[in-house]
Here is the input.
Amino acid sequence: MIDLLSSPLMQRALLAALLVGATAPIVGTYLVQRRLALLGDGIGHIALTGVAAGWLAGSLAGLSTPESLALPGAVVVSVLGAVGIEWVRARGRITGDVAMAILFYGGIAGGVLLIKIAGGTSANLMNYLFGSIATVSGADLLWTAALSGLVLLVGLGLRPLLFAVSHDEEFARASGLPVQLLTSTLAALAALTVTVSMRVVGLLLVSALMIVPVATAQVVTRSFSRTMALASLIGAVVSVVGLGVTYWYDLPPGATIVVLAIALYAVTTTVQQRRRRPDPTADPHPDLRDDVRLAGEA
Amino acid sequence: MTTTEPVLRTEAIDVVLGGLRILHGVSFQVQPGEVVALLGANGSGKSTLVRASLGIIPVAAGRVRLFGEPLGRATPWPRIGYVPQRKPAHTGVPATALEVVRAGLLSPGHWRRASPERAMAALERMGMADRARQPVQEMSGGQHQRVLIARALVREPDLLLLDEPTTGIDLGTIDAFVDAIDAMRRTGTAVVAVLHETEAFQAMLDRAVVLRHGRVVHDGPPPPARTEHAGPFHEHTHGHPAPEETTGALEFDLIGDDE
Here is the structure.
């Protein structure tokens, strides 16, 4: 245990995992409530185009390490893509699932094309697709901390508004709230979360860290605020524990974290189902007044 | 014409949705304290008129004025309450009744004034205070509807728009609801309600606007109570003079065919 914490590399990785694990489910709670659980996946794919675009920009600019622009590229392209898709969706020009499908395919194809033009190979994209937390540098950690901080600040600071618009968009509009601005903010938060998480779990598994802790939390919680808090806690714990496991066993960190999160979900649902074994004889609404009086009843 | 500013006025609005013209040049207005029923068959444009009046869907032509102001930043949103058509509570993230009602306190400029005390008071009025911490996903249709009504009442609005508030809910809920609306009407709140059945509101209705195929075909006295449906709500006292025209103007079918 002491070894685990004494390595600076592991310290950075653990901190990054903690930040990302706690942040991703906050945004995920809004996405699940808006029934856009797969939006993170769509953004994850388009972020790959951003990674390659940043790389291309780096090599065009003659940088010695063109990869250094990959993260900024991913941030810019995924935020634009996410806000753009939200804009198109709001205008009803295209249905949510078709928009998502186009993001998926376009994102991957764009990434593979651009990385080739930049003089790289698809293999260069693997670190982004599956994560590379073992190579987190001090600068990476700063980026992660800054972006997580921003997501937390906005995601928690605007919670009443983001809740209102995620729970009932029509009512939010009738309250005069700036719905388009809020949904775009949410899309941008999701995009930032994806790019911040890509080093930890990889773009293909990013969405799992946003969604699975929320799915687990809502099995046991009964309010929005508790779901969000518990999901964030679960995200932080599975990320840190999952990464810790890979210190002793040679396992890929991203996949370990996600498998752990899903295992926790499976255990939670099973336990909860046993605890609340349905009683078919129970009246689900015992306190509802009857509005029909039958003959012979008092 | 009255001298007071209408709380809601639409001026020849057209609404086009999915290439179909849903409303054709609809003009109507609501005075402060007036209770107006919007009637008409399914698909006649009642809900669309309410939603366009609130800016939920855009108007293709014409103007909407709320308290004399155009839709947008100038609209006094905190003075407006809305109860949308109830959709089945979905299976997403659980949200308690209190959380839902607190969302009703938000408006531009009041982004954080979500006082739990006011939300509790609104739930109390709808008889739902003991369920404030229950998720709406677990509620029956009538209970959920009470929460949605509380979410509109919590703003203490001067204009309340209701889209089929009593459809598919039990008599007890309708009773609590009619009492709450009646109390608000007495304090000067104007009410516009999309209704399929007017019995429950009969005693307080000032006027009925009937839509057919997206056009206003009647704007005047509400239909009379049908004796066989005379419900248990007729004891509500009239707080205002009876409508002037009580004879001859209620043959909606004939009015529609005049065009």
